[in-house]
Amino acid sequence: DQQVKQNSPSLSVQEGRISILNCDYTNSMFDYFLWYKKYPAEGPTFLISISSIKDKNEDGRFTVFLNKSAKHLSLHIVPSQPGDSAVYFCAASAGSSGSARQLTFGSGTQLTVLP
Amino acid sequence: EPEVTQTPSHQVTQMGQEVILRCVPISNHLYFYWYRQILGQKVEFLVSFYNNEISEKSEIFDDQFSVERPDGSNFTLKIRSTKLEDSAMYFCASSEQAGVYTQYFGPGTRLTVL
Asked: Residue A1's pLDDT is what?
């Protein structure tokens, strides 16, 4: 099942620079997308989300961009900080507005921010 | 800040034994979920639960698995007869209400089946 793909298993950036994490999806029924951050031995921590009716959502240092025609989303972190070093998961959901929706996760990208 | 809690953090069991993993979702949340992550693999959906019944389940969630909300705060996942391949991190999650799709995850229970 490759409905959500994160093709870069790892990314290294310098502190203060921009981190760009990418995610592609194949299921056109997905209408809500989320980014989670995960440290070892912890659960995924919600970062930011975007609905398919938007193409950008910003929250502090984090911005998510959605390109529906390309079925692509990206997470930008500016400026990157060493504490951002973690595995970042892209997730997507589909379904009716009143339903409990399962999340379909990508395989994750390990971000390392170098001091 | 409210959070999802899970107990135990680590459970070791013998193959064939029953295990119950416990979760306390965020108090005003109405939708509850279980996911698992086998080492080196993706986080996978198991089951969702709303209004005291299963909303959706994956093909992983076979007859060996069951979920229950025994009281107003706990949400449990039972595996009746564990197999070696059930070894994984199990995450509970909850979301607030209809139309709000963000799910908040607990810290996970590491299940080791010997």
From this structure: 60
